[in-house]
Amino acid sequence: MAKGTSIPDSSFEYWLNKTVEWGQTTTFESQQDVCLHLPKLQEFLKQIYGAIQHMNTTPALKLFPLIGQLLGRLCWNPFVVAHDESQQNLLQCLWCLYSAEPENAVELKANDWIWSLLQSLIGVDHGERSFLQSLHYPEEEYHSKLLKNIVSSLVKEFQGYQCDRSSLFLRLPSEQRRNVSILCLPIVTLPEVVPLVEALLTCHDNGSVETLNAEFLESISNSLLQKKIFLSESTVMNLWLRYLPSLEQAIFHLTETLISHPCASLLEVEAIITDSLLPKASACHPSLFRVLDNFFRAILLETDGHPKIITIIQAFTRCFVQALLQMQTQMPLKLYFPCNHQSLVMALMAHPSDVSSAAWSQHLISIVQLLKRIVQDKEVTRSSANLFENWYLLVQFGDWVNVALQQLMKADNISEMLLWLLMFYHKPYMDNQQENHLLEDVKSVYHRIKVLSNKTTLNLEDVRIALVTGNLSTEQSHLKDLINHLLVSFLLFSASGRRIAKESVQLFTLAGAATDGVSELLAGIAHRLKNKGCGGSKDDKVQITIELLQQQLLETQSKIMQPNDILHRTINYIQ
Questions:
Q1: C-alpha span between 225 and 227 (Å, rounded)
Q2: What dihedral angle (degrees, nearest 10) is formed by the CA atoms of 514, 519, 524, 526?
Q3: Is there a domain that residue 400 lies in?
Q4: Strand ranges inside 308-445, DSSP E
Q5: Is residue 421 part of a domain?
Q6: Three-state SS sequence of 203-245
Q7: Of the residues 105, 137, 169, the one at which a domain ends
Q8: End-of-domain residue from the set 137, 153, 176
Q9: d(C-alpha 201, C-alpha 236), whole Å
């Protein structure tokens, strides 16, 4: 009898002799004998499993020197492995003998041996092919059924351990999950293996150290991105939660897709973002949102605030908020925006389409009052971190910025509060003196544009003179962008501006060579107006003007940063 166990050596000898006697069960008598002995064989395999489940490979082989021969012969017996429970018992014993980190030559050899056995289980050699043909059983169906049985056995075992939290089973599942994850590497993309992959990824770990093999997690991540494998939403989220590189790859893949393949509209952009599952995952798990948020912040800085990246961030934020509102259990906003005042977050989160247009002006004033109080708070000080956090929040919810542009053009009197909002959006880092000086310049340009908007007859030269007068047009690029935004507002939301929209595209170059920011702004306004769903004649005229300007820009546009440049900077950041 093996020391420390209740399994006599004679039992190993008996079953080993039986397997030799059965051979490949090619005769009716041997097949019948296997069937008669299967119940007792299952009990014996369970005994072996119970004895070795907490052992390392080397001691187990020393304790039971005949175990390799016995298991090997059983794995090559079609009648044994075709029986679900016998197959499960065999696999359990093999998992126990597999070493995730072999420590000697014996364990290395045992691993190779187990690999060959598994390959024999899911493969069909010439002898088995002849045997299957004699049974009139399709080879492909046999292969698929066998693999499904193996997967089903393992999934049931893992689920059983999940239900048993006693200390007896705490150590084994971690080791077993790691072993199985390694053995799954060559077959992770097979549809039959999906239930096992999902079971592994959704198993709970009892410690802070990841138990699944890193190469396995990387393989699953790559297969998902390449659409070689399809997993449930909860499983994908579990993968991202337990393997950060997978989440980073998904974010980069999404960003690369949106940059490399220009979309026809923001509606298409949002559809791609939603299909990525990232907004929903971010809403369900604030920790994932923080990772995504930090990625977007870094890419925004890496690309010098390129309008294309801003558009992606704003589209993602809209999808995220929609997913957040659909959740049955709402989490505190502080978990998602820990560095921002919650009253400001809530004010910006209210989408313009959800607020009556009659209340837009008052809502914008509330936003500006909150924002100014926060960034000008003497107790907090105008620190770079404070300014950036609140500027970035405004960027995320940029729909309210283009609403401010619309309100400015429709207002009867100059609204310094809305002009300040535009200034902060384009140039957040200003001291009081710079801010006062810039405000006067912006008011001057805005006043001249407003005068033009009230004229019944207007030509292009009038607009040109209005834009180049003053010091503002000679400033840096962000101020040129501000002028462009004011000009867009004039062309879209005033009757006189719409009349000269086609000829006005060349005016954008007066405020800088780059017009990509104008294109992104036009797309954002068009998307907002469509979502508003008013269907009024004024909105229809604006939409027609937007389409006209977009077409003209496509013909004359000269971008300072092409999509490949943005992607190159993004890749540099990742590396």
A1: 5
A2: 150
A3: yes
A4: none
A5: yes
A6: CCCCCCCCCCCHHHHHHHHHHHHCCCCCCCHHHHHHHHHHCHH
A7: 137
A8: 137
A9: 8
Q: What is the rounded CA–CA span in Å between residue 4 and residue 247?
A: 47
Instruction: Identify whether residues 355 and 398 lie together within a single domain.
Output: yes
As a whole number of angstroms, the distance between CA 210 and CA 208 comes to: 7
pLDDT, residue 379, reads: 59
The rounded distance, in Å, linking the Cα atoms of 508 and 488 is 9
Q: Look at residue 266 and tell me if it is in a domain.
A: yes
Please report which confidence band the pLDDT of residue 557 belongs to, taking 50, 70 and 90 as the band edges. low
> Any idea which residue has 């390449």 for tokens?
226
Examine the domain organization and report whether 369 and 498 are in the same domain. yes
- The residue written with tokens 């440049």 in the block is 565
Please check whether residues 421 and 490 belong to one and the same domain.
yes
Residue 232 CA to residue 236 CA, distance in Å, equals 6
The string of pLDDT tens digits covering residues 381-426 is 556 778 899 999 999 999 999 999 999 988 888 789 999 999 999 9
Q: How many CB atoms lie within 10 A of CB 231?
A: 18
Token pair of 376, please? 């000008």
* Token couple for 249: 């790859």
- Does 468 lie in the same domain as 351? yes
Of 21, 22, 145, the C-alpha closest to 80 is 22
Give the structural domain span for 497.
Answer: 342-512
Residue 218 is assigned to a structural domain of this protein: no
Residues 350 and 331 in one domain: no
Please enumerate in sequence order all residues whose Cβ is within 8 A of that of 135, keeping only pairs 6 or more positions apart, or say none: none
Mean pLDDT to the nearest integer, 9-25: 84
Structure tokens at 261: 């393949």
Judgement on whether residues 51 and 110 belong to the same structural domain of the protein:
yes
End-to-end CA distance of the chain: 59
**What is the pTM assigned to this prediction?**
0.75
Counted domains in the chain: 3
231 contact partners, CB below 8 Å, separation of at least 6: 194, 197, 198, 201, 220, 224, 239
**Closest by Cα among 25, 287, 50 to 169:** 50
Do 417 and 272 fall within a single domain? Answer: no
493 and 352 part of one domain: yes
Contacts for 212 with CB less than 8 Å, ≥ 6 apart: 177, 178, 181, 200, 201, 242
